Predict the structure.
Amino acid sequence: MKKDIFDDYVNRVVHRFGITREQLFTKDKSRQLSDARHVLYYLCRERQITSTYTKRYMGEHGYNIDLPSIGHGVRKVEQHINNDPDYITLINELK
């Protein structure tokens, strides 16, 4: 059940950020791709998908990440939300 939600969020994020699924799951640390992954982690957390499941689902797509990095990504989005109203709009559009 949660995997379907994760996959739906992946599709929404790649479409909104104008990237491919393959790019999302590469180790490229460019700002656009990092931001997209961070938003994905945040959306998952908001839907009660645990970091452990997010880690597993990312790994199934070939992107290995540790739990502290997922938490870091969530905190980065929370900072953006507190400082940039456009981020609130972005998150609301993706939910």
